[in-house]
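Bug #2210: token dump truncated for DUF4878 domain-containing protein?
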Amino acid sequence: MKTWMKVVLGIFAGIALLLALIFWLTGDVTKAGDDFFGAVQNDDIDSAYELLSDDFKAGTSKADLASYLKANALDKISDVSWGGRMIQNNIAKLDGTVETKSGDSIPLALRLVKGKNGWKIQSIRKDPAGFNTGHADIPIPSIAKQTELVKETVAIFAQSLADKDMTKLYDNSSPMLRQQVSFDKFNETYGYFFQFAPGYAAISKQNPVLDEAVINKDTEILTIKSHYPVKPSTVYFDTLYAYEGTDWKFAGLVIEIGSKSK
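Reproduced locally. Full output below:
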């Protein structure tokens, strides 16, 4: 056999070994996904619920999970397969396809976190049917949903300012944010605004004017840009969200007063 042929075969052998290693390393991750949908397939919502992360369960009851699965045609499945998979530290992502008993194929993605009890599902995302005008795999939420998210964030922010303690906002934030930023740092950063608590309390009772919503392709973070045209100066908010569980969770806040920087 010629030398170049040996080299080529060596490369293919290396690729095969690499693929085998990837599938071995992600075996526990895919098992968590398989076990979850296996429980769903057996109508065992209790077992499926126990495969969710604590943060997922904190905002989702068993009834909520069952309703979500039914509303998205994920409660009557015949098979599930996984394609793309990624692990970074204690966070993993699975891309796969669910086959329903009616013969439909539903693309979906799971985000998982690893804790003392192994891999748990942090979020479930199903690709939406119909047109998708977003710029990333995750669709940009509707105008009504954006308004709801911003109003909720500003209301909790205002309440935290009134308390002179950012615990409420921090506790309502994404686990990803809490992993990266300690409460002390969070409290110190936004503590500057404590002195303006009455003004933000008034703002929180108004509806925001939405300017733009974008999703970062790499981080999958949603940024909603909005403003409140109050006197004497307009207040601009950039509110950030991460998709976790079956909904968006607060992941950051930037405030500007007066003219908006580019």
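Output looks complete on our side. The chain has ten helices and eight strands. Marking as cannot-reproduce; reopen if the truncation happens again.
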